[in-house]
Amino acid sequence: MSQPLTVPPGTKVRLADFDPRFKNNDDEKSQVDDQIEANCQATADLAYRLYAENRRAVLLVLQGMDTAGKDGTLRTVMRGVNPQSCQVVPFKQPSIEELEHDFLWRVHRAVPRKGNIGIFNRSHYEDVLVVRVHGLVPENQWRTRYERINAFEGLLTESYVTIVKCFLHISKEEQRERLQARLDTPHKRWKFSKGDLDERNLWEKYQEAYEDALTLCNTEQAPWHIVPSDRKWFRNLTVSRLLRQTLERLDPQFPPCEEGLDGIVVV
Ligand code: AMP
Ligand code: MG
Questions:
Q1: Which residues have CB under 8 Å from 122's CB, separation 6+?
Q2: Closest Cα to atom 4, ligand 1: which residue?
Q3: For 3-20, what is each residue's pLDDT tens digit?
Q4: 53, 213, 216, 250: most buried by Cβ count inside 10 Å?
Q5: Which ligand is the nearest neighbour of the Cα of 191?
Q6: Domains in the chain, ordered, with CATH?
């Protein structure tokens, strides 16, 4: 049994067709730690080259319902990467200043510079997710945003950024368990807010909004990956592999050295 990570652009995504508990037959929790470690090590080495090359950037976009594991994923996959060459940008409720600009203003400023890996913990997709579900702007405004997002991601891709978009797909039951664990575990309680329960009550509306984002913004240049995330280890394995493969494809090179260095002795 297999489950695709991506679907061809233009295909309508139905999340019910994707099992959040999916794992490959040959993957077992006990055996994957070494694989995740190897992926992270390879990523760290390639990130060093990307930084030295200073011509291109990678942007990892993490989206998912509350407790889907955005924080845990980035903690795992960025292990070992030089902090100077990566930035994590969490997108929270927009500030007044941000609201006084177009929805992509704060996002464009946060795009990684050449040589860097950027991680968006939530992203411009919130502007067609929470904004749509709560009707924070009228429908005629959020409706046009799918195209705007595609054009924006097209601009980045043509310029110098390779975008890796991951939807961390969890089930409603798994979310229940994780929210309960936050309540029951003293050092996790700070992560819980009562508002999380209100959002949980809107689960179906969010799934619909995600289906549209995953369908309408699934382009050749910046495809969506639907990452089964009920098992944390499978999620980490999948995202760490994606990041590694992306960097391997880019194959960043050290820049040429100055000429005439041979034979120089530093005294
Ligand atoms: P957390 O990721 O748990 O720290 O929560 C951040 C919160 O900010 C989430 O509830 C998001 O839905 C919310 N948020 C992020 N971007 C936006 C946006 N553009 N408009 C409204 N709320 C947002
Ligand atoms: Mg939260």
A1: 62, 63, 70, 90, 91, 92
A2: 92
A3: 999 999 999 999 999 999
A4: 213
A5: 2
A6: 15-250 (3.40.50.300)
